[in-house]
Design goal:
Blueprint lengths: L8 E6 L2 E6 L4 H7 L23 E6 L2 E6 L10 E3 L3 H17 L4 H9 L20 H10 L5 E3 L6 E3 L14 H5 L44 H5 L15
The structure holds iron/sulfur cluster (2 copies) and FE2/S2 (inorganic) cluster.
Length: 246
């Protein structure tokens, strides 16, 4: 039966255990529901998957063909066999982590994952040390959850980074903090408002912001510190993506 010919529920196996998935579900969704551990960085259940980090690799056998797939976008089908921890899976995840370590060696989550996979250092030369792994979660969250579309990817190659259009404060930004909250590598910090590391950090959060478009709570203007308050060590009380499960 081809993937297109079935509907409803599909029985298949993950690491030898029979599980049930539904049409349109991904391997990652079923695996998490069933308690299997598959690491992710660019995935969040509230946002359409984009498969940029490749950490969620698993091995899938469909018919006589076995291949590595990114489980956050690969849809389940009847009778497939999924393996989450074969030697090949672990070796490839380790390679992915080496590349990420070469870009964001100081990101706590990357360090933690590297340690879990027995990696002390990367074979690759340091590309850039800014914690951002270009996973795009913040960009997608700002667009899909908040609806502000205030940030995006800028430049190409080694210069690619996240920022606001023309790298100036964006009037579209409602200062909700969702991008800060959802970033898996702690690359966005509200205390970086006045630092030119990422365009998003340049926002002057001293205007009257509207109510949060996610939960509708308080006008955020009173909760937001201006860059001068930040420089003076002001207390940054933020909404931090309230209502969004991490
Ligand atoms: S703080 Fe601004 S840039 Fe970040 S998610 Fe909210 S609206 Fe978007
Ligand atoms: S700032 Fe964080 S969420 Fe945004 S692309 Fe970089 S690592 Fe991903
Ligand atoms: S979580 Fe699947 S590619 Fe990043």
């Amino acid at each position: 039966m081809s993937h297109a010919e079935w509907s409803g529920a599909a029985k298949f196996t993950i690491d030898g255990r029979e599980v049930v998935g539904y049409k349109g579900e991904t391997i990652l969704q079923v695996a998490r529901r069933e308690g299997f551990n598959i690491p992710t960085l660019c995935y969040h259940e509230a946002i359409a998957p984009y498969a940029s980090c490749r950490l969620c690799l698993v091995e899938v056998t469909a018919g006589r063909r076995t291949k590595l797939v990114t489980s956050c976008v690969y849809e389940v089908a009847p009778d497939i066999e999924v393996k989450t921890d074969t030697e090949k899976v672990m070796r490839n995840r380790k390679s992915v982590l080496e590349l990420l370590l070469a870009r964001a060696p100081d990101a706590p989550r990357i360090k933690q994952l590297a340690a879990e996979y027995g990696l002390k250092r990367s074979r690759y030369p340091l590309v850039k040390n800014d914690k951002c792994i270009l996973c795009g979660l913040c960009v997608r969250a700002c667009k899909e959850i908040v609806g502000a579309n205030a940030i995006g990817f800028i430049d190409r190659g080694a210069e690619r980074h996240v920022g606001t259009p023309i790298e100036r404060a964006s009037e579209r930004c409602v200062g909700c903090g969702t991008c800060v909250y959802i970033c898996p590598t702690s690359a966005i910090s509200l205390k970086d408002v006045s630092a030119p590391m990422l365009g998003i950090h340049d926002h002057p959060y001293d205007y009257e912001a509207p109510d949060c478009s996610v939960c509708g709570e308080f006008g955020l203007g009173s909760e937001i510190a201006s860059p001068s308050q930040v420089e003076e060590g002001g207390d940054l009380k933020r909404h931090q993506g309230k209502g969004i499960k991490k």
